[in-house]
Specification:
By secondary structure, the protein is an alpha/beta fold. It has nine helices and seven strands. It has a seven-stranded parallel beta sheet, sandwiched between helices. β1 (22-28), α1 (35-47) and β2 form a beta-alpha-beta unit. α4 packs parallel to α6 (136-142). Mean pLDDT is 81; it is low at 2-9, 196-215 and 218-238.
């Protein structure tokens, strides 16, 4: 395969498309989309010589709370508004396929696009927790996997169960994954990006709370906080 370049196509190809391409799959809630998603996608395009990266916006991650989850159509629209790279495509394919399990989604993609070569893209935090996913080993046996360095999860991820389970099929040079059939995975050390969906949701919540106190209300007199007055804080993974 020659080195791919930017293309004008901005929609996911129709099922049955028989072009031979290298496609990175970045799945997630994208709640909300942030610079870290773009950073990983662009690094993957460059380091793995991909034709495209497809963002699969999940209707609902089974491991995440539904609280604070924006409807999938809004998350897809927001992602499309934030991305101006024609090589990065956004879709809610899981909703179309009726799946919320990564293993099933990837199996379906391989069936619908038999000539495409897929690689699952994820951060080190997901490598650490992937043994909790439904039929997680099937993911490694279905497509190639590329894991991107993400502070502070790197050490724990590389010492975790998934890394040990598939230690024999890890390649040191990322491009080598294309010369092996799955299972084959690589760990990519990249410049770290500080963005986090959890932090953004927390900030957005703080802004909304601040706005709700505006509108001509008089400042409240400071007093010592009592249990429960500062509200609850929810922590979700990106």
């Amino acid at each position: 395969m020659g080195r791919p370049g930017p293309e004008s196509v901005q929609t996911i190809p129709s099922f049955g498309d028989r072009r031979r391409r290298r496609i990175g799959i970045l799945g997630g809630s994208f709640n909300p989309v942030h610079g870290g998603h773009l950073h990983i996608s662009r690094e993957a395009l460059k380091r793995l010589k991909l034709h495209q990266v497809w963002w699969l916006v999940s209707p609902q991650n089974p491991l995440k709370s539904t609280e604070g989850m924006v409807p999938v159509r809004h998350r897809v629209a927001t992602a499309r508004a934030c991305v101006n790279d024609p090589r990065i495509l956004i879709a809610d394919l899981e909703q179309s396929l009726g799946t919320i399990r990564t293993a099933l989604t990837l199996r379906n993609l391989c069936q619908h696009y038999p000539n495409m070569h897929f690689v699952w893209l994820m951060g080190a935090d997901n490598l650490a927790e992937i043994p909790r996913w439904w039929r997680w080993t099937t993911i490694f046996h279905t497509v190639r996997v590329a894991v991107f360095d993400r502070n502070p999860y790197s050490y724990g991820a590389l010492a975790g169960g998934a890394a040990h389970r598939f230690a024999q099929v890890r390649v040191r040079r990322p491009l080598s994954i294309w010369f092996r059939t799955p299972p084959s995975w690589a760990y990519l050390a990249i410049r770290r990006h500080p963005a986090s969906a959890t932090v953004l949701r927390t900030k957005n919540g703080a802004v909304k709370a601040a706005k709700s106190t505006e509108g001509g209300q008089h400042p409240r007199k400071k007093h010592s906080a009592r249990p429960g007055e500062n509200g609850r804080h929810y922590s979700h993974h990106t």
